[in-house]
Design a protein that fits this description.
Elements (H helix, E strand, L loop, with lengths): L19 H7 L3 H20 L12 H8 L6 H8 L2 H21 L3 H18 L11 H15 L6 H14 L2
Helix pairs in contact: 2-5, 3-4, 5-6, 6-7
Length: 175
């Protein structure tokens, strides 16, 4: 019995061929993109609409939260930096989460958005959730790990990036 090696493992997003495993593989990152995109949009909006969060001090404020985690964080200097302007830091995180979430959900500059999400998650892990014991109680590490496949693969299907790539390929084939 002879076997032929298949070289078009993924095909194109709109190719009619392929079995269910190839289709599942092609779309495997879409649920992760939806989850992370919606979660980060929600997190950013939640911060921006929480009257107590965007304050230097007081119950539920970004300032009090950062002061509370300063001595238990992996990098106290990073917390000190945020404490120079807690409200500015709060807005930077909130708008960063919004940009990351929108980019991830739409698949627009998906690798860059995922890198931004990974960096936000890393900074939160090293500061806010570092003292979680055992470590797996802190969700920021899990979010960091969830971003890595999207940093590596981007958004190859159902995305603005894929549509732009297909458009460039069509335009290139006409020349």
């Amino acid at each position: 019995m002879t076997h032929r090696m298949r070289t078009d493992t993924y095909g194109t997003p709109h190719s009619g061929g392929g079995d269910w495993r190839e289709t599942a593989t092609r779309y495997a990152l879409v649920p992760l993109r939806i989850f992370l995109g919606v979660t980060f949009i929600y997190a950013g909006l939640d911060k921006l609409t929480d009257g107590a969060f965007m304050k230097d001090s007081g119950s539920g404020s970004i300032g009090d939260m950062m002061r509370a985690v300063r001595d238990s964080s992996a990098i106290p200097a990073l917390v000190d930096l945020s404490l120079k302007s807690p409200v500015g830091f709060g807005y930077a995180i909130a708008f960063g989460e919004l940009a990351v979430g929108i980019g991830t959900l739409l698949g627009l500059l998906a690798r860059l958005a995922a890198l931004g999400g990974a960096l936000i998650s890393l900074s939160l892990w090293l500061t806010v959730s570092w003292a979680s014991d055992p470590y797996y109680y802190g969700n920021d590490l899990a979010y960091l790990m969830a971003w890595i496949p999207l940093v590596l693969a981007g958004a190859p299907v159902l995305s603005v990036d894929a549509a732009l790539r297909a458009r460039r390929q069509r335009a290139g084939s006409h020349h």
